[in-house]
C-alpha cells in the first residue's frame, strides 16, 4: 500500500515498499496531516502515480503480475487536465477508482475511473466511513480453470508452417485439464477475415478438442488482418454466449501465433482486448514485427519470436509457465449492485485486503512504439 496527497503538486507519504505489515500502514495513515495548498492538480498527481509510485523501484510489482489499483479521493475540480494522464494510467494496466466529494466534478471523476461503474460521488467526507459489505479477497489461481483462445495466423505465407502450429497447440492442450468446470479452449484462424473452428463451450473433453484440431485445415488468403482478428475474438469468443467465464473471474488468455506483420492497425484492438481483462501472449516468426507483438501482448515479456515455426518448441516450456501463472480475476462488479449503497469504503478495503501473487501488468510499449517512430 502507498499513500500520496496532492494539491498543487503530489506529495508521497509512503511508497509501496515502505511498510510490510498492516499495523505499520495503519499507524502511518493515522499520523497523516494535510499538506495544504490552494489549487488542485489531479492530472499531475495521476501522472506522478503512474511514473513514480507504481514503478519497480518504489515497490510496484506489475512485472510480477500483481494487480495495480489506484483509489483517487478528491474534494474539488482539478485545474489541470485529467483525461490524458488517466488514459495513460489505464493503458499502463492500473485500475483506477474515482471518489469525488463536495465540489468534485462528476465528469472528471468518471474520466479518471476505470469505467463509469468505478466512479463514485458523495456529498461529505463523513459518508465514506460507512462500510456496507465485508472486504472481498481476490482468489489466487490454484484451481485449474482458464479460458484459453488460440488465434492462428492462416494467411498464405504461413501455409508451410501451419502443421507445426497445429502440433504446438495440441501439445499445449495436452498439458491442460479440460472440462466444463476446468480449462476451456477455443481455436480461431484468421487471414483477411477470422473464422472460429470451435468455441470455449463447444468441447468439454480433451480428446474432442484434439480430434477437432486434427481436422483444421489452413485457411489461406490475405491480407493478414491481426487487428480485425483481435476485435473479433473480443466480440465473439470472449463472451458469455461462447462459453467465456470472465464474469466469474476465470482467467481469460489469448495465445496468438503470427507469421508476419499485420496489414491493419492493432493498437486500438490490443488496448480494448486488455481492457476486457484478456491476457494476450504472442508468438511470431522472424517476419513478424516484434514491436507489434509487444504492443499486443500483456507486457513485452509475453511476446516471443522464433526464426521459423519449426523452432516454436524452443519456447514451449516458457509459454506453458506463463499460461499457468495467470491468476483469477475479481468477479466483475455489477453497477446495479453498488449504486446508492455507499460501497466506496468497501471497495477501498477490498483492495487493501488483496493477497495475490500474480496478475495484471501494463502496456507502456504503445507509447514507446510511437516515440520510436
From TrEMBL:
- Protein's UniProt keywords contain Repeat: yes
Instruction: Indicate where this protein resides in the cell.
Output: Secreted, Extracellular space, Extracellular matrix
Q: Which biological process terms from the Gene Ontology are attached to this UniProt entry?
A: cell adhesion
Under Pfam families, the record lists: VWA
**This protein's record includes keyword Secreted:** yes
Source species, domain of life = Eukaryota
Span of domain VWFA: 1-148, 147-319
What InterPro entries does UniProt report for this protein, alphabetically?
ECM_Assembly_Org (IPR050525), VWF_A (IPR002035), vWFA_dom_sf (IPR036465)
**SMART domains reported for this sequence:** VWA (SM00327)
Q: GO CC annotations?
A: collagen trimer; extracellular space
Q: What Gene3D superfamilies has UniProt attached to this entry? A: von Willebrand factor, type A domain (3.40.50.410)
Q: Which UniProt keywords are listed?
A: Cell adhesion, Collagen, Extracellular matrix, Repeat, Secreted, Signal
Put simply, this protein is called VWFA domain-containing protein
Organism (species): Echeneis naucrates (Live sharksucker)
Amino acid at each position: 500500500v502507498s499513500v500520496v496527497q496532492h494539491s498543487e503538486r503530489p506529495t508521497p507519504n509512503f511508497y509501496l515498499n515502505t511498510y510490510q505489515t498492516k499495523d505499520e500502514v495503519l499507524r502511518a495513515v493515522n499520523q497523516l496531516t494535510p499538506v495544504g495548498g490552494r489549487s488542485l492538480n489531479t492530472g499531475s498527481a495521476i501522472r506522478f502515480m503512474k511514473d513514480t509510485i507504481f514503478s519497480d523501484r518504489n515497490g510496484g510489482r506489475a512485472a510480477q503480475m500483481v494487480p495495480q489499483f489506484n483509489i483517487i479521493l478528491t474534494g474539488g475540480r482539478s485545474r489541470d487536465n485529467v483525461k490524458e494522464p488517466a488514459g495513460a494510467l489505464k493503458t499502463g494496466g492500473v485500475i483506477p477508482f474515482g471518489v469525488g466529494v463536495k465540489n468534485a466534478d462528476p465528469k472528471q471523476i468518471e474520466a479518471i475511473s476505470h469505467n463509469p461503474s468505478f466512479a463514485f460521488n458523495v456529498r461529505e467526507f463523513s459518508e465514506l466511513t460507512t462500510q456496507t459489505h465485508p472486504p472481498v479477497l481476490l482468489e489466487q489461481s490454484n484451481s485449474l480453470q482458464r479460458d484459453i483462445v488460440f488465434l492462428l495466423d492462416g494467411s498464405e505465407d504461413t501455409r508451410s508452417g501451419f502443421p507445426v502450429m497445429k502440433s504446438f497447440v495440441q501439445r499445449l492442450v495436452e498439458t491442460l485439464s479440460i472440462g466444463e468446470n476446468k480449462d476451456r479452449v477455443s481455436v480461431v484462424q484468421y487471414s483477411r477475415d477470422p473464422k472460429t473452428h470451435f468455441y470455449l463451450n463447444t468441447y468439454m473433453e480433451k480428446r474432442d478438442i484434439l480430434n477437432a484440431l486434427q481436422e483444421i485445415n489452413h485457411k489461406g488468403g490475405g491480407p493478414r488482418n491481426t487487428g480485425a482478428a483481435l476485435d473479433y475474438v473480443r466480440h465473439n469468443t470472449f463472451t458469455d454466449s461462447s462459453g467465456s467465464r470472465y464474469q466469474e473471474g476465470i482467467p481469460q488468455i489469448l495465445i496468438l501465433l503470427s507469421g508476419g506483420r499485420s496489414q491493419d492497425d492493432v493498437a486500438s484492438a490490443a488496448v480494448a482486448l486488455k481492457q476486457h481483462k484478456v491476457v494476450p501472449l504472442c508468438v511470431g516468426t522472424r517476419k513478424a514485427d516484434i514491436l507489434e507483438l509487444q504492443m499486443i501482448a500483456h507486457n513485452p515479456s509475453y511476446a516471443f519470436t522464433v526464426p521459423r515455426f519449426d523452432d516454436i518448441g524452443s519456447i514451449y516450456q516458457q509459454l506453458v509457465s506463463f499460461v499457468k501463472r495467470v491468476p483469477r480475476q475479481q468477479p466483475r462488479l455489477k453497477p446495479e449492485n453498488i449504486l446508492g449503497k455507499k460501497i466506496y469504503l468497501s471497495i477501498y478495503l477490498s483492495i487493501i485486503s488483496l493477497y495475490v501473487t500474480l496478475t495484471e501488468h501494463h502496456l507502456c510499449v504503445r507509447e514507446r512504439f510511437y516515440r520510436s517512430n
